[in-house]
Amino acid sequence: MTPLRAAAPGPLPNIPVYRPDLSGNERRYVLECLDTTWISSLGGFIERFEGAVRAATGAEHATGLCNGTVALHLALHCLGVGPGDEVIVPTFTYIASVNTIAQCGATPVFADCREGDWLLDPADAAARITPRTKAILPVHLYGAACDMRALGALAKERGLGVVEDCAEAFGTTLDGRHVGTFGDVGTFSFFGNKTITTGEGGMVISRDGALAERMRIVRGQGQSPTRRYWHEVLGFNYRMTNIVAAIGLAQIERLDAILARKRALAARYEALLRGLPVAFQRPMDGVESSHWLVSVLLPPGADRDAVQKEMAARGVDTRPVFFCAHEMPMYAKGERFPVAEDIAARGLSLPSYPTLSDSDMDRVADALGAALRGQGLA
Ligand SMILES: *Cc1c(COP(=O)(O)O)cnc(C)c1O
Question: Known Pfam families for this protein (predicted)?
Answer without folding.
Answer: DegT_DnrJ_EryC1
